Amino acid sequence: MHNIRPLPQYLVGRFHGWRATSYSENSAWYRRLATDGQRPRAMVISCCDSRVHVTSIFGADSGEFFIHRNIANLVPPYAPDGLQHGTSAAVEYAVTALKVAHLIVVGHTSCGGVAGCHAMCSGRAPELEEKTSFVGRWMDVLRPGYDRVKDLPEDQQVAALEREAVLVSIENLMTFPFVKQAVESGQMSIHGLVHDISEGTLVQAVEGGRNWVEV
After folding, report:
1. CA pair distance 71, 139, nearest whole angstrom
2. Which residues, including other chains, have CB under 8 Å from residue 85's CB and lie 6 or more apart?
3. 135: left (phi > 0), else alpha (psi -120 to 50), else beta?
4. How open is the CA angle 102-117-123, to the nearest 5 degrees?
5. Is the pLDDT of residue 208 over 90?
6. What is the mean pLDDT of the chain?
7. How many CB atoms lie within 10 A of CB 193?
8. Other CB atoms within 10 A of residue 42 CB
9. Any alpha helices (H) in the chain, and if so which ranges?
10. Fewest CB atoms within 10 A around its CB: which of 44, 46, 162, 189?
11. CA distance linking residue 83 with residue 30, whole number of Å
């Protein structure tokens, strides 16, 4: 493993600053988390995009959120095929082991993954159609959403598809038997949000996703 290098110094400095302030001032809480384990109230599925910072948006502390991030905050359909499914594994653990009370899908504006999906589905990104494209095959999850927005005026399609990324994920979540059971029994609720990076706002899906209102 000769390609492993020491951490960049700017990150080392930030770590020592955190250790001397946030950790030092809350060390009893961190030790309790280590001893008692995590009991997050919510799972958040959000995009890998570095501009999406859900712990800052909600003012969350360590131990509050079980967070899974992937390209375009997507959840694939339930597929118990014996293969490796990172997002599905995270959902399974959150719902069946941690028993979170809320499952929140957070999309965002200016999403590169969604824009790539739109370009691919409209025939403008042949490189994403290649079987070797990990991004393209992942964005296939969102094709049903593209089908629902493709007849809108072209300048509205990408923004609509960003919301579809949330709605398609929620629809797919309900194909997981343990998610469906938790929701229908009232043990867990599902929420869909879109964060506007420029304006700092959040809108939430209501009425089954037919409408969106500001939080």
Report:
1. 8
2. 76, 79
3. alpha
4. 160
5. no
6. 97
7. 22
8. 21
9. 9-18, 24-25, 27-36, 54-57, 86-92, 112-121, 126-129, 134-139, 143-149, 154-173, 177-184
10. 189
11. 35
CB atoms within 10 A of CB 152: 13
Residue 165 to residue 91: CA distance in whole angstroms? 17
From the centroid of its chain, how far is CA 48?
Answer: 8
Phi, psi at 99, each rounded to 5°:
55, 55
Structure tokens at 176: 């997981």
The answer for residues whose C-beta is within 8 angstroms of residue 143's C-beta and 6 or more apart is 117, 121
Judge contact between 191 and 169, C-beta under 8 A: no
Distance of alpha carbon 160 from alpha carbon 146, whole angstroms: 9
- When pLDDT is cut at 50, 70 and 90, the band that residue 209 belongs to is confident
Q: What SS3 class is residue 183?
A: helix
Angle at 35 between CA 34 and CA 36, to 5 degrees: 100
If one compares 1 and 31, the residue with the highest pLDDT of the two is: 31
Q: What is the pLDDT of residues 23-47, one digit of tens each?
A: 999 999 999 999 999 999 999 999 9
% of the chain with per-residue pLDDT over 90? 98
pTM, 2 dp:
0.97
